[in-house]
Amino acid sequence: MSQEILQVEGLSKMYKLGDINTGSISHDINRWISKLRGKEDPYQKVAVTNDRTTKTSNSYVWSLKDINFSVNRGEVFGIVGKNGAGKSTLLKLLSKITKPTEGRINIDGRIGSLLEVGTGFHPDLSGRENIFLNGAILGMRKQEIRRRFDEIVEFSGIERYIDTPVKRYSSGMFVRLAFAVAAHLEPEILIIDEVLAVGDQEFQNKCISKMKDVSSQQGRTVFFVSHNMMAVRHLCTRALLLDKGQVSMIGPVGEVLEAYHHDEKDSAHGVRNNLPERTKGYFKSWRLEGQTPSNNHSCYSREDFDMVLQFRAQESIVKCDLNFKITGPDGTTVLFTKSSDGLGGLFMVHPGDYEFRIRMNLPVAKGKYEVEVGLFAGGWVDTWKSTTKLQVLDAADGYGGDSSAAILNVKTDFSLSSI
Length: 419
Known about the structure:
By secondary structure, this protein is of the alpha/beta class. It has ten helices and 20 strands.
């Protein structure tokens, strides 16, 4: 049996903005004539990259362009990217909902898709009837569906409403039933889009546990798309980062999420929101002092050190409050503090250079962390995100070994006694 269950080669998808189909009759005739002459589609030559932030007179855009990757059996594969990056288009192509403009997809097995709330469900049919309908769409026999029916209903948690028309279901109930059907009807590949965000936290945890089980225990492949980076990191082994319809990176999930998080911050806000010449003051740099490694942007987990922030005041600023935040690779805030808490109130600065010193200890897993700082004085004077990352290393005493799989790296004491 081949290890690869899916191969994508040169996959591209072009759309014409503003039209239901691919364009006008004249455009279709031009395409037909070009095809007869053995020439390339003339509109593919002029199509541009799909950038939602840029206005262009060209209405033909590449939603996806030259996508290449492969996925193995039993792998949980994440797909991440900003809104409009092409994630949903890729999933629709994999699910055969739409056809590619160029390229090909080789799939060895059946696909179960959960792309939108209520996809494949008839609103006037009951939950019970929709289970059989959806199972038939996925290619399952009636006997297979009956065999798994009780498991599906129990997992969904909506047994009381199973004979009620689904048009009376809430969006959360829709997702519960739809995921339960997709996860239990044994397709070789399960595709899950952002729909799990509709469910409550308890059900999301239940779904993540189920996806782990179908992958590790049953050997099925899962495509998982989500803006919940914690869920992607916890569930996936590899990930693909899409940017403007093109592959930006494929690799281990930790490295991909770090690249995505860094790119998202830089593209959204830049290094700072206020330019030095247009503000009362601005942050210049940061460094670490104390019991740290030779690199003054690195520290050991669980060891005291000083974070030193350099600030230049261009005029007097009153009622200041320094805000400081450290963010993990997946976007989770691991530390937030304000000077008004430590100093017991607000402070004032006059024109000149200053150093803010923060004594801290980071009992966190090793990795690279974002440093953000802002000065508030009735409004933001400057908000600054460092392009240099804080590198946290395993504890200097060697305690705990490799902490990269943990969230915290806290020293604990154990005792043993006979009873």
